[in-house]
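agent> fetching stored inputs for the 6-O-phosphono-beta-D-fructofuranose docking request
agent> found them:
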Amino acid sequence: MGQAKYVLDLQYLISKFSNRSKINRSSVMGKKIAILTAGGDCPGLNAAIRGVGKTAIVKYGMEVIGFTAGYSGLIRKDFVELDEQKLSGILTLGGTILGTSREKPFKLEKGLTHNDKPGLIKKNYEELGLDCVVCIGGNGTMKTAHLLSQEGLNVIGIPKTIDNDVFGTDLTFGFDSAVSIATEAIDRLHSTANSHQRAMVIEVMGHNAGWIALYAGIAGGGDIILIPEIEYNITKVCKTIEERFSKGKVSAIVVVAEGISKPENMSAASYLVSKIQQLTKIEARETRLGYVQRGGSPSAMDRILATRYGAFAAELIAKGKFGQMVAIHGDVLSAVPLEEVGGKLSLVDPNHLLIKKARNMGVLFGDE
Ligand code: F6P
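agent> prediction call returned; pasting C-alpha coordinates
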Protein backbone atom coordinates (compact mmCIF):
# COMPACT_ATOMS: atom_id res chain seq x y z
CA MET A 1 0.00 0.00 0.00
CA GLY A 2 2.74 2.41 1.14
CA GLN A 3 4.93 1.45 -1.80
CA ALA A 4 2.03 1.90 -4.29
CA LYS A 5 1.44 5.41 -2.97
CA TYR A 6 5.15 6.13 -3.29
CA VAL A 7 5.09 5.05 -6.97
CA LEU A 8 2.01 7.19 -7.59
CA ASP A 9 3.62 10.21 -5.93
CA LEU A 10 6.72 9.68 -8.01
CA GLN A 11 4.66 9.49 -11.20
CA TYR A 12 2.87 12.67 -10.20
CA LEU A 13 6.16 14.45 -9.60
CA ILE A 14 7.62 13.27 -12.91
CA SER A 15 4.54 14.41 -14.84
CA LYS A 16 4.53 17.74 -12.99
CA PHE A 17 8.21 18.23 -13.77
CA SER A 18 7.83 17.34 -17.45
CA ASN A 19 4.81 19.66 -17.77
CA ARG A 20 6.83 22.48 -16.29
CA SER A 21 9.68 21.96 -18.70
CA LYS A 22 7.18 22.21 -21.56
CA ILE A 23 7.46 25.99 -21.33
CA ASN A 24 10.44 26.29 -23.55
CA ARG A 25 12.70 29.05 -22.21
CA SER A 26 13.89 29.88 -25.72
CA SER A 27 10.30 30.47 -26.88
CA VAL A 28 9.79 33.21 -24.29
CA MET A 29 13.36 34.55 -24.17
CA GLY A 30 13.61 38.08 -25.46
CA LYS A 31 9.97 38.82 -24.75
CA LYS A 32 9.48 42.28 -23.36
CA ILE A 33 7.04 42.95 -20.55
CA ALA A 34 6.04 46.01 -18.53
CA ILE A 35 4.82 46.37 -14.95
CA LEU A 36 2.78 49.21 -13.47
CA THR A 37 1.27 49.91 -10.06
CA ALA A 38 -2.00 51.87 -9.97
CA GLY A 39 -4.54 53.13 -7.42
CA GLY A 40 -3.84 53.73 -3.71
CA ASP A 41 -0.53 52.29 -2.61
CA CYS A 42 -0.21 49.47 -0.07
CA PRO A 43 2.51 47.39 1.57
CA GLY A 44 3.76 44.61 -0.70
CA LEU A 45 3.79 46.43 -4.05
CA ASN A 46 7.56 46.23 -4.36
CA ALA A 47 7.52 42.57 -3.38
CA ALA A 48 5.07 41.95 -6.24
CA ILE A 49 7.14 43.98 -8.75
CA ARG A 50 10.17 41.96 -7.67
CA GLY A 51 8.25 38.67 -7.94
CA VAL A 52 7.17 39.37 -11.52
CA GLY A 53 10.45 40.94 -12.60
CA LYS A 54 12.89 38.42 -11.15
CA THR A 55 10.90 35.42 -12.38
CA ALA A 56 10.56 36.96 -15.85
CA ILE A 57 14.30 37.71 -16.05
CA VAL A 58 15.87 34.76 -14.22
CA LYS A 59 13.56 31.92 -15.28
CA TYR A 60 12.38 33.09 -18.67
CA GLY A 61 15.07 35.49 -19.93
CA MET A 62 12.53 38.26 -20.59
CA GLU A 63 13.21 41.99 -20.67
CA VAL A 64 11.31 44.02 -18.07
CA ILE A 65 10.40 47.68 -17.85
CA GLY A 66 8.25 49.55 -15.32
CA PHE A 67 5.84 52.37 -16.17
CA THR A 68 5.87 55.22 -13.66
CA ALA A 69 2.81 56.54 -11.81
CA GLY A 70 0.31 53.87 -12.81
CA TYR A 71 -1.55 54.23 -16.10
CA SER A 72 -0.15 57.80 -16.45
CA GLY A 73 3.25 56.32 -17.34
CA LEU A 74 1.66 54.12 -19.98
CA ILE A 75 -0.06 57.15 -21.52
CA ARG A 76 3.08 59.33 -21.37
CA LYS A 77 5.48 56.51 -22.31
CA ASP A 78 7.34 57.23 -19.11
CA PHE A 79 9.19 54.14 -17.93
CA VAL A 80 12.34 52.76 -16.30
CA GLU A 81 14.30 49.64 -17.19
CA LEU A 82 13.95 47.00 -14.48
CA ASP A 83 17.02 44.78 -14.38
CA GLU A 84 17.99 42.38 -11.60
CA GLN A 85 19.95 45.06 -9.79
CA LYS A 86 16.99 47.46 -9.74
CA LEU A 87 14.81 44.65 -8.38
CA SER A 88 17.21 43.86 -5.56
CA GLY A 89 16.75 45.19 -2.04
CA ILE A 90 13.12 46.24 -2.55
CA LEU A 91 11.28 43.30 -0.96
CA THR A 92 10.87 44.98 2.41
CA LEU A 93 10.20 48.52 1.16
CA GLY A 94 6.79 50.13 1.60
CA GLY A 95 5.14 52.14 -1.19
CA THR A 96 6.08 51.44 -4.78
CA ILE A 97 9.38 52.12 -6.55
CA LEU A 98 7.36 52.87 -9.70
CA GLY A 99 5.01 55.41 -8.13
CA THR A 100 1.25 55.25 -8.55
CA SER A 101 -1.75 57.38 -9.52
CA ARG A 102 -5.50 57.09 -9.81
CA GLU A 103 -5.42 57.82 -13.56
CA LYS A 104 -8.38 56.20 -15.38
CA PRO A 105 -7.46 56.28 -19.07
CA PHE A 106 -10.93 55.30 -20.33
CA LYS A 107 -12.74 58.03 -18.40
CA LEU A 108 -13.70 61.04 -20.49
CA GLU A 109 -12.35 64.15 -18.79
CA LYS A 110 -14.81 66.93 -17.86
CA GLY A 111 -15.33 69.41 -20.69
CA LEU A 112 -13.80 67.14 -23.36
CA THR A 113 -15.68 65.34 -26.12
CA HIS A 114 -12.83 63.05 -27.15
CA ASN A 115 -10.48 60.78 -25.20
CA ASP A 116 -7.19 60.05 -26.94
CA LYS A 117 -5.62 58.18 -23.99
CA PRO A 118 -6.55 54.59 -25.04
CA GLY A 119 -5.10 55.34 -28.49
CA LEU A 120 -1.88 56.69 -26.97
CA ILE A 121 -1.57 53.60 -24.80
CA LYS A 122 -1.93 51.28 -27.80
CA LYS A 123 0.62 53.30 -29.76
CA ASN A 124 3.14 53.22 -26.89
CA TYR A 125 2.58 49.49 -26.32
CA GLU A 126 3.35 48.79 -29.98
CA GLU A 127 6.27 51.24 -30.29
CA LEU A 128 7.92 49.72 -27.22
CA GLY A 129 7.44 46.22 -28.65
CA LEU A 130 5.69 44.97 -25.52
CA ASP A 131 4.38 41.43 -25.18
CA CYS A 132 2.40 42.10 -21.99
CA VAL A 133 1.60 44.70 -19.33
CA VAL A 134 1.23 43.52 -15.74
CA CYS A 135 -1.20 45.84 -13.93
CA ILE A 136 -0.94 45.70 -10.15
CA GLY A 137 -3.90 47.37 -8.45
CA GLY A 138 -7.38 47.22 -6.98
CA ASN A 139 -10.85 47.12 -8.49
CA GLY A 140 -10.44 50.23 -10.66
CA THR A 141 -7.11 48.97 -11.97
CA MET A 142 -8.62 45.59 -12.88
CA LYS A 143 -11.47 47.31 -14.71
CA THR A 144 -9.02 49.33 -16.80
CA ALA A 145 -6.85 46.23 -17.35
CA HIS A 146 -9.90 44.47 -18.76
CA LEU A 147 -10.70 47.37 -21.09
CA LEU A 148 -7.08 47.36 -22.30
CA SER A 149 -7.33 43.66 -22.92
CA GLN A 150 -10.48 44.28 -24.99
CA GLU A 151 -8.44 46.80 -27.00
CA GLY A 152 -6.12 43.93 -27.94
CA LEU A 153 -3.28 44.38 -25.43
CA ASN A 154 -1.90 41.38 -23.56
CA VAL A 155 -2.62 42.12 -19.93
CA ILE A 156 -2.28 40.35 -16.58
CA GLY A 157 -3.76 41.77 -13.37
CA ILE A 158 -2.43 41.35 -9.84
CA PRO A 159 -4.85 42.26 -7.01
CA LYS A 160 -3.58 44.51 -4.25
CA THR A 161 -5.28 46.76 -1.69
CA ILE A 162 -5.45 47.11 2.05
CA ASP A 163 -9.26 46.96 1.66
CA ASN A 164 -9.27 43.29 0.52
CA ASP A 165 -12.30 44.04 -1.66
CA VAL A 166 -11.15 42.79 -5.07
CA PHE A 167 -13.68 40.37 -6.53
CA GLY A 168 -12.51 36.91 -7.64
CA THR A 169 -9.86 36.29 -5.01
CA ASP A 170 -9.89 35.40 -1.32
CA LEU A 171 -7.09 37.80 -0.52
CA THR A 172 -5.30 40.89 -1.74
CA PHE A 173 -1.83 41.71 -0.50
CA GLY A 174 -1.63 44.81 1.69
CA PHE A 175 -4.57 43.63 3.78
CA ASP A 176 -2.54 41.62 6.28
CA SER A 177 -0.18 44.54 6.95
CA ALA A 178 -3.09 46.97 7.41
CA VAL A 179 -4.79 44.58 9.83
CA SER A 180 -1.58 44.27 11.87
CA ILE A 181 -1.15 48.05 12.03
CA ALA A 182 -4.79 48.60 13.03
CA THR A 183 -4.59 45.81 15.61
CA GLU A 184 -1.53 47.37 17.22
CA ALA A 185 -3.37 50.70 17.41
CA ILE A 186 -6.40 49.06 19.06
CA ASP A 187 -4.11 47.27 21.53
CA ARG A 188 -2.70 50.64 22.55
CA LEU A 189 -6.13 52.19 22.98
CA HIS A 190 -7.17 49.62 25.60
CA SER A 191 -4.84 50.95 28.31
CA THR A 192 -5.63 54.62 27.85
CA ALA A 193 -9.36 53.83 27.63
CA ASN A 194 -9.16 51.92 30.94
CA SER A 195 -7.18 54.68 32.67
CA HIS A 196 -9.76 57.33 31.76
CA GLN A 197 -12.86 55.12 31.80
CA ARG A 198 -13.75 56.13 28.27
CA ALA A 199 -15.35 54.78 25.15
CA MET A 200 -12.73 54.79 22.42
CA VAL A 201 -13.86 54.86 18.82
CA ILE A 202 -11.25 53.85 16.27
CA GLU A 203 -11.97 54.35 12.58
CA VAL A 204 -10.14 52.17 10.09
CA MET A 205 -10.01 52.30 6.30
CA GLY A 206 -11.59 49.84 3.89
CA HIS A 207 -13.60 52.04 1.52
CA ASN A 208 -17.05 50.37 1.22
CA ALA A 209 -15.87 47.08 2.71
CA GLY A 210 -15.55 46.11 6.36
CA TRP A 211 -12.70 43.61 6.10
CA ILE A 212 -10.10 45.63 8.02
CA ALA A 213 -12.59 46.57 10.77
CA LEU A 214 -13.74 42.96 11.12
CA TYR A 215 -10.27 41.41 11.28
CA ALA A 216 -8.56 44.12 13.35
CA GLY A 217 -11.66 44.44 15.53
CA ILE A 218 -11.49 40.78 16.42
CA ALA A 219 -7.70 40.65 16.71
CA GLY A 220 -7.72 43.73 18.94
CA GLY A 221 -10.60 42.59 21.13
CA GLY A 222 -13.08 45.29 20.07
CA ASP A 223 -16.34 45.32 22.03
CA ILE A 224 -18.35 46.78 19.17
CA ILE A 225 -17.46 46.36 15.50
CA LEU A 226 -19.35 48.33 12.87
CA ILE A 227 -18.99 47.47 9.19
CA PRO A 228 -20.82 48.81 6.11
CA GLU A 229 -22.24 45.37 5.32
CA ILE A 230 -24.30 45.26 8.54
CA GLU A 231 -26.77 48.05 9.20
CA TYR A 232 -26.35 49.38 12.74
CA ASN A 233 -28.71 51.01 15.19
CA ILE A 234 -27.05 53.94 16.97
CA THR A 235 -29.37 53.69 19.99
CA LYS A 236 -28.42 50.03 20.37
CA VAL A 237 -24.71 50.92 20.15
CA CYS A 238 -25.00 53.57 22.85
CA LYS A 239 -27.13 51.36 25.08
CA THR A 240 -24.59 48.55 24.85
CA ILE A 241 -21.81 50.91 25.89
CA GLU A 242 -23.82 52.10 28.87
CA GLU A 243 -24.66 48.53 29.88
CA ARG A 244 -20.97 47.62 29.77
CA PHE A 245 -20.13 50.39 32.20
CA SER A 246 -23.05 49.58 34.47
CA LYS A 247 -21.75 45.99 34.67
CA GLY A 248 -18.45 47.32 36.03
CA LYS A 249 -16.39 47.45 32.85
CA VAL A 250 -14.20 50.52 32.74
CA SER A 251 -13.97 51.07 28.98
CA ALA A 252 -15.46 50.24 25.62
CA ILE A 253 -13.61 49.84 22.35
CA VAL A 254 -15.59 50.56 19.19
CA VAL A 255 -13.91 49.61 15.91
CA VAL A 256 -15.62 51.24 12.97
CA ALA A 257 -15.08 50.99 9.22
CA GLU A 258 -14.88 54.33 7.39
CA GLY A 259 -17.63 53.21 4.99
CA ILE A 260 -20.55 52.85 7.45
CA SER A 261 -23.63 55.01 6.89
CA LYS A 262 -23.30 58.43 8.58
CA PRO A 263 -24.02 62.08 7.88
CA GLU A 264 -22.06 63.23 4.84
CA ASN A 265 -20.18 66.03 6.57
CA MET A 266 -18.75 63.84 9.33
CA SER A 267 -16.27 61.00 9.57
CA ALA A 268 -17.59 57.71 10.93
CA ALA A 269 -15.60 58.17 14.15
CA SER A 270 -16.70 61.75 14.82
CA TYR A 271 -20.32 60.85 14.21
CA LEU A 272 -20.18 57.96 16.68
CA VAL A 273 -18.34 59.99 19.32
CA SER A 274 -20.87 62.83 19.03
CA LYS A 275 -23.74 60.35 19.44
CA ILE A 276 -22.14 58.54 22.39
CA GLN A 277 -21.58 61.89 24.17
CA GLN A 278 -25.14 62.93 23.37
CA LEU A 279 -26.96 59.71 24.28
CA THR A 280 -24.87 58.45 27.21
CA LYS A 281 -23.01 59.94 30.18
CA ILE A 282 -19.81 58.30 29.06
CA GLU A 283 -16.84 60.25 27.82
CA ALA A 284 -15.81 59.26 24.29
CA ARG A 285 -12.77 59.96 22.13
CA GLU A 286 -12.03 59.27 18.48
CA THR A 287 -8.96 57.97 16.65
CA ARG A 288 -8.82 57.99 12.87
CA LEU A 289 -5.95 55.77 11.87
CA GLY A 290 -5.76 57.03 8.28
CA TYR A 291 -2.83 56.52 5.97
CA VAL A 292 -0.50 54.83 8.47
CA GLN A 293 -2.51 51.71 7.54
CA ARG A 294 -1.06 51.92 4.04
CA GLY A 295 2.50 52.88 4.88
CA GLY A 296 5.70 51.10 5.79
CA SER A 297 7.15 47.68 5.37
CA PRO A 298 4.85 44.78 4.39
CA SER A 299 4.11 41.99 6.88
CA ALA A 300 5.74 38.60 6.25
CA MET A 301 2.40 37.23 4.96
CA ASP A 302 2.02 40.11 2.49
CA ARG A 303 5.59 39.66 1.26
CA ILE A 304 4.85 36.00 0.61
CA LEU A 305 1.48 36.60 -1.08
CA ALA A 306 2.83 39.42 -3.25
CA THR A 307 5.85 37.30 -4.24
CA ARG A 308 3.62 34.34 -5.13
CA TYR A 309 1.26 36.55 -7.14
CA GLY A 310 4.18 38.16 -8.98
CA ALA A 311 5.90 34.89 -9.81
CA PHE A 312 2.60 33.35 -10.94
CA ALA A 313 1.90 36.34 -13.21
CA ALA A 314 5.26 35.76 -14.93
CA GLU A 315 4.38 32.07 -15.37
CA LEU A 316 1.07 33.03 -17.01
CA ILE A 317 2.91 35.32 -19.42
CA ALA A 318 5.31 32.52 -20.31
CA LYS A 319 2.30 30.29 -21.05
CA GLY A 320 0.70 33.05 -23.14
CA LYS A 321 -2.35 33.15 -20.88
CA PHE A 322 -3.51 36.76 -20.97
CA GLY A 323 -6.60 38.74 -19.96
CA GLN A 324 -6.40 37.13 -16.52
CA MET A 325 -6.08 38.26 -12.92
CA VAL A 326 -4.03 36.13 -10.56
CA ALA A 327 -6.02 34.99 -7.54
CA ILE A 328 -5.85 32.78 -4.48
CA HIS A 329 -8.54 30.48 -3.11
CA GLY A 330 -7.59 28.71 0.08
CA ASP A 331 -3.88 28.31 -0.56
CA VAL A 332 -4.17 27.61 -4.29
CA LEU A 333 -3.20 30.16 -6.92
CA SER A 334 -5.31 30.45 -10.04
CA ALA A 335 -6.07 32.72 -12.98
CA VAL A 336 -9.49 34.42 -13.15
CA PRO A 337 -10.62 36.08 -16.40
CA LEU A 338 -10.50 39.87 -16.00
CA GLU A 339 -13.96 40.14 -17.50
CA GLU A 340 -15.35 38.29 -14.47
CA VAL A 341 -13.69 40.70 -12.04
CA GLY A 342 -14.24 44.23 -13.36
CA GLY A 343 -16.89 46.40 -11.71
CA LYS A 344 -17.56 43.98 -8.83
CA LEU A 345 -16.63 44.15 -5.15
CA SER A 346 -15.80 41.52 -2.58
CA LEU A 347 -17.67 42.54 0.56
CA VAL A 348 -17.95 40.86 3.95
CA ASP A 349 -20.74 38.30 4.11
CA PRO A 350 -22.87 39.27 7.16
CA ASN A 351 -22.97 35.55 7.96
CA HIS A 352 -19.18 35.27 7.86
CA LEU A 353 -17.95 32.63 10.29
CA LEU A 354 -15.84 35.17 12.18
CA ILE A 355 -18.90 37.35 12.76
CA LYS A 356 -20.85 34.39 14.14
CA LYS A 357 -18.01 33.44 16.48
CA ALA A 358 -17.58 37.03 17.67
CA ARG A 359 -21.32 37.44 18.28
CA ASN A 360 -21.25 34.28 20.41
CA MET A 361 -18.59 35.95 22.54
CA GLY A 362 -20.68 39.07 23.08
CA VAL A 363 -19.28 41.36 20.39
CA LEU A 364 -21.93 43.75 19.05
CA PHE A 365 -22.18 44.45 15.33
CA GLY A 366 -24.77 47.13 15.93
CA ASP A 367 -27.81 45.22 14.72
CA GLU A 368 -29.06 42.79 17.36
O1 F6P B 1 -8.28 51.73 -1.35
C1 F6P B 1 -7.37 52.02 -0.35
C2 F6P B 1 -7.80 53.23 0.42
O2 F6P B 1 -6.81 53.49 1.41
C3 F6P B 1 -9.19 53.13 1.07
O3 F6P B 1 -9.16 52.36 2.23
C4 F6P B 1 -9.49 54.60 1.28
O4 F6P B 1 -10.88 54.81 1.34
C5 F6P B 1 -8.90 55.22 0.05
O5 F6P B 1 -7.90 54.35 -0.42
C6 F6P B 1 -8.27 56.57 0.25
O6 F6P B 1 -7.92 57.06 -0.99
P1 F6P B 1 -6.92 58.25 -1.31
O7 F6P B 1 -5.54 57.70 -1.30
O8 F6P B 1 -7.30 58.70 -2.68
O9 F6P B 1 -7.14 59.30 -0.28
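agent> quick read of the result: Confidence is low (pLDDT under 50) at residues 1-8.
agent> awaiting further instructions
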